[in-house]
Design brief:
alpha/beta, 6-stranded mixed beta sheet
Length: 721
C-alpha cells in the first residue's frame, strides 16, 4: 500500500515537471483509433496501452496524450468484470520486482482471466515513444548525438533525454489489437507454448517493425558488415572463380573482394544523420521559400509491411538530400542511397556514407567479382528490411524530360527478392518539382554544347555559394506505389531465382514492367508550379514574349485544360492566381516586363530560355495528347480543309499516340486514350476552337481560336521527332 502511494506521488511529481518542459509530437492519424475506442466504450471493452520498456516519464506522456484525444486514460484502472488492475499499461519487459520472469505478470493474469471468461476481451494499443526523433526545432549538434536509437536508455540517459528533448520527442499510437484474437491464434499456431509466450512474441515483433520503420534496421558497424559479407557462400564462391579465371591466388582475390566492399558499403551513423538534419534545416531556410510534400501518408501506411524502395526522378544533386530530409522529418527511416562512385569525394564521400549512401560504379564491365560482391551487399540490405533509394533514370536529366529507365538496379533488387528473406517490395515513384535549380548555370552551359563537368569538392562548394539567392518553393510528390509481387504474378515469374542463374524471360519482363510503371507513376505525380506553367506559355510564343493580356489569357486556357482534362489525381496545380504567377516569376528573375507598342509585354529574362525550357519540359507530358490532336486539326487547315470526320481524327491520333506515349511515359493504354480524346475535344469546344456537328468536326476560323490551336500544335511539332 505504501509502495502504491509512493508511486502515485512520484508520478504526480513527474507529470508536473514534464508538463512544463515536454511537448510531445504525435505522428500519424489517431482518428481511426479514437473511433475504435469510442465504439468499444459502448461494448465496455477495456483498453490497455502496451509499451516495451518500463519508464514512468514515458507513461506520464502517454497518459497526457490519451486524455487530450478522448482516449481511455492510461492511468485509469483496467476493469474487466470482477477483475481489476491499478492502471491500463502493459509493459512487455519484466518488472524490477520480478526480473527473472519470462512474461509480464499483468499479461499472465489477463490471459488467465480471458481463458476462464470466453465472453470477455481486452483491446491492446501498442504505443511507440522515442526521444529526439522528431527534429523540427533541433538546433544542437550535441543533442543530435544523444537522440534515440535501438538501445534501451539507462536512467541517466532518460534524464538527459528529458533535459535535451523537452520539445522534440515522438509518440505514435498504433491500431488496437484484440487480446482474445491473439489468444485464439496462439492455441492454433503454438499449442505447445503458453498463450502469453505467443502474445509477447507477436507484440515485440510488431514493436520492432514500428521501430524499424522509424529508425531503420538495427545495423552493426561497417567493419562487421563487410566481415559478414566476406564469409557468405556467394562471395566465397565468387572469390574462388576470380582466382581461377584471373590466375591469381585466392588471397589476392579475397583482398580484391574486400577492396570492392570497402568501396561500396555505407557507414551509416545515427549521429551523422542527425548532424545532417540540423545542417539541412539551416540550408533549406536559406535556399528555399518552403518545401511542399504531397501524398506521404501512402508511404507511412506501407512502411511496416513492405520493403520500401524509393525510385525518384533525378533533377539535381539536391534530390539526395531533399528526399532523405523529407522522409526523416516525417518519422520514417531514411533510405540507403545508391550514389555514383564519382561522388565519393574527400570529406563529402564519408559524410554521404554516414547518411546511408553506398557507392556504385557506372559500369560493371563484365567484372564478375564486383558484380557478385555488389549483389550480395544489396541482398544483405533487403534481408534486413533496409529501405533503399536509387534514381530510376540513372543520371540527372539535363532537359527536364524524364529519361529512359536504367534497369540495372531494378534487376538486382528483383533478383535479390527472388532469392528470399525479404518482405514484399513496394517501389515508391517520387517527383521533384523545382522552380529554380542550384546547377542551373552549368545545365545552360551543357545544353549549349559545353562538355559535362566532372563532380568535385570545389565544384560543389562553388554551387553552395549561391545559397543567398532565391530558389522559390520545391515540391516532393510521392507517386502511386508499384507492387513487385503483383507484376511477378502477372508475368508468371518463378518464386525463387538464384544469383548464379540467368534471369528467366518472365523476370526480365517483370523488370521492364516495373520500370515502365515507375516512369508512368512519376509523371502522374507531376507538380504544375508557377514557373513551369508560365514557361510553357512564353516559350510557345514568337521571340519568347507576349502581351500581358495574352499571357493571362493563355494561363487561363492552359489551366482550364488541366482541370477539364485532369492528368491524374496525384497531380498538384499551383493555387496562385494568374496575376500572382506573373509576379512570382518576376521575383525569381525568370521573366521581366517590357514596353511594346504602347502596351506592357512579358518576356523571358535574359539567358533564361534554356532553364525555362527545362521547367516547361517537366510538365510537357500533361499537354502532349491535346497537342497531338491540335496538330491533326492544324494539318487539316494547311490542306485547306476546315473540317474532319471524328472517325478520321480518332484514327490518326490513335495511330500516332504510341510514339508520344513511349517518349513521354503517358499513362493511358491505346484503348483508354479514346475516352481522353473525347474529353479534349470537349475542352476544345469550350474554348471555341472547334464545333462538332454529329460525326463531323469543324475548325473555327477566328484569329484567337487559331492562335490557341497553333500554340498547342507547336508543342507537338517542337517536342517530337
Amino acid at each position: 500500500m505504501a509502495n502504491s502511494a509512493y508511486q502515485k506521488i512520484y508520478r504526480q511529481l513527474t507529470k508536473k515537471i514534464l508538463d512544463k518542459i515536454v511537448s510531445p509530437q504525435v505522428l500519424g492519424d489517431t482518428q481511426a483509433l479514437e473511433n475504435t475506442v469510442q465504439d468499444n466504450k459502448l461494448n465496455a471493452l477495456p483498453i490497455c496501452y502496451v509499451i516495451q520498456d518500463d519508464s514512468t516519464s514515458n507513461k506520464v506522456l502517454i497518459d497526457n496524450e490519451t486524455k487530450k484525444r478522448q482516449l481511455s486514460p492510461a492511468f485509469s484502472p483496467l476493469v474487466l468484470g470482477d477483475y481489476r488492475e491499478d492502471d491500463s499499461f502493459l509493459t512487455l519487459e519484466p518488472t524490477k520486482s520480478n526480473a527473472s520472469a519470462y512474461y509480464p505478470d499483468k499479461l499472465i493474469r489477463l490471459v488467465e482471466y480471458l481463458l476462464q471468461h470466453p465472453e470477455s476481451d481486452v483491446l491492446l494499443v501498442p504505443v511507440t515513444i522515442l526521444w529526439g526523433r522528431a527534429p523540427e526545432n533541433e538546433d544542437s549538434w550535441y543533442k543530435a548525438l544523444m537522440a534515440d536509437a535501438w538501445t534501451k536508455p539507462t536512467g541517466i540517459k532518460q534524464a538527459l533525454n528529458i533535459t535535451l528533448y523537452g520539445r522534440e520527442n515522438y509518440i505514435e499510437f498504433h491500431q488496437a489489437i484484440s487480446l482474445r484474437a491473439l489468444i485464439n491464434t496462439a492455441t492454433e499456431v503454438a499449442p505447445n507454448f503458453a498463450p502469453a509466450h505467443y502474445v509477447v512474441t507477436e507484440l515485440n515483433k510488431s514493436f520492432n517493425q514500428y521501430k524499424e520503420a522509424i529508425l531503420g534496421p538495427d545495423l552493426s558497424d561497417r567493419r562487421n558488415v563487410i566481415n559478414k559479407l566476406m564469409i557468405t557462400d556467394t562471395i566465397k564462391e565468387a572469390i574462388l572463380k576470380e582466382s581461377i579465371h584471373k590466375k591469381i591466388s585466392v588471397n589476392e582475390a579475397e583482398n580484391l573482394a574486400r577492396h570492392y566492399l570497402d568501396e561500396i558499403v555505407s557507414d551509416f551513423s545515427y549521429s551523422t544523420l542527425r548532424f545532417a538534419e540540423i545542417a539541412l534545416t539551416k540550408l533549406w531556410t536559406q535556399l528555399y521559400d518552403g518545401i511542399e510534400v504531397h501524398n506521404f501518408d501512402t508511404v507511412r501506411e506501407l512502411a511496416k509491411d513492405y520493403e520500401i524502395v524509393y525510385t525518384p526522378c533525378h533533377r539535381s544533386h539536391i534530390d539526395y538530400l531533399l528526399l532523405s530530409y523529407v522522409i526523416y522529418n516525417r518519422g520514417l527511416m531514411v533510405p540507403h542511397i545508391a550514389a555514383g562512385i564519382n561522388l565519393n569525394m574527400p570529406v563529402v564521400g564519408q559524410l554521404m556514407r554516414g547518411a546511408g549512401a553506398y557507392f556504385i560504379r557506372r559500369s560493371f564491365n563484365g567484372n564478375a567479382l564486383y558484380t557478385a560482391v555488389f549483389k550480395e551487399y544489396i541482398h544483405s540490405m533487403l534481408s534486413r528490411n533496409t529501405p533503399l533509394e536509387y534514381f530510376i533514370e540513372g543520371g540527372r536529366s539535363r532537359t527536364g524530360l524524364l529519361l529512359p529507365a536504367k534497369k540495372g538496379m531494378l534487376a538486382i533488387t528483383i533478383q535479390s527478392h527472388l532469392r528470399g528473406n525479404s518482405k514484399p517490395i513496394a517501389f515508391i515513384p517520387t517527383y521533384f518539382g523545382y522552380e529554380k535549380l542550384l546547377e542551373g548555370s552549368s545545365y545552360i552551359q551543357e545544353l549549349g554544347g559545353q562538355k559535362k563537368q566532372a563532380e568535385s569538392l570545389f565544384g560543389l562548394l562553388k554551387s553552395f555559394k549561391k545559397i543567398e539567392k532565391v530558389f522559390g518553393i520545391v515540391h516532393v510528390n510521392f507517386g502511386e506505389p508499384v507492387f513487385l509481387d503483383d507484376l511477378l504474378k502477372k508475368n508468371e515469374a518463378p518464386k525463387k531465382v538464384s544469383l548464379q542463374d540467368e534471369l528467366p524471360i518472365s523476370v526480365k519482363a517483370t523488370v521492364d514492367d516495373v520500370a515502365h510503371n515507375i516512369q508512368e507513376n512519376i509523371n502522374k505525380a507531376v507538380v504544375i508550379n508557377p514557373i513551369s506553367l508560365i514557361s510553357l506559355v512564353l516559350l510557345n510564343a514568337p521571340t519568347y514574349s507576349l502581351s500581358e493580356r495574352d499571357v493571362l489569357q493563355r494561363l487561363t486556357q492552359f489551366r482550364n485544360l488541366l482541370q477539364q482534362h485532369h492528368y491524374d489525381d496525384r497531380m498538384q496545380i499551383t493555387p496562385l492566381s494568374n496575376h500572382e504567377i506573373i509576379q512570382y516569376a518576376i521575383k525569381l528573375k525568370q521573366i521581366e516586363f517590357i514596353e511594346h507598342d504602347n502596351e506592357r509585354w512579358i518576356k523571358v529574362a535574359n539567358k533564361q530560355e534554356a532553364l525555362l525550357k527545362y521547367f516547361s519540359n517537366n510538365i510537357l507530358h500533361t499537354f502532349m495528347l491535346p497537342a497531338l490532336i491540335a496538330d491533326v486539326l492544324k494539318n487539316q487547315l494547311e490542306q485547306e480543309n476546315t473540317s474532319i470526320s471524328k472517325l478520321e481524327l480518332v484514327t490518326t491520333v490513335v495511330a500516332r499516340y504510341p510514339d508520344i506515349q513511349k517518349i513521354f511515359f503517358l499513362k493511358w493504354s491505346v484503348d483508354e486514350v479514346l475516352d481522353e480524346i473525347d474529353l479534349i475535344l470537349t475542352y476544345f469546344m469550350t474554348e471555341k476552337l472547334i464545333q462538332i456537328d454529329g460525326e463531323q468536326i469543324h475548325i473555327v476560323q477566328a484569329d484567337e481560336a487559331l492562335g490557341l490551336l497553333s500554340s498547342f500544335a507547336l508543342l507537338y511539332e517542337v517536342n517530337t521527332p
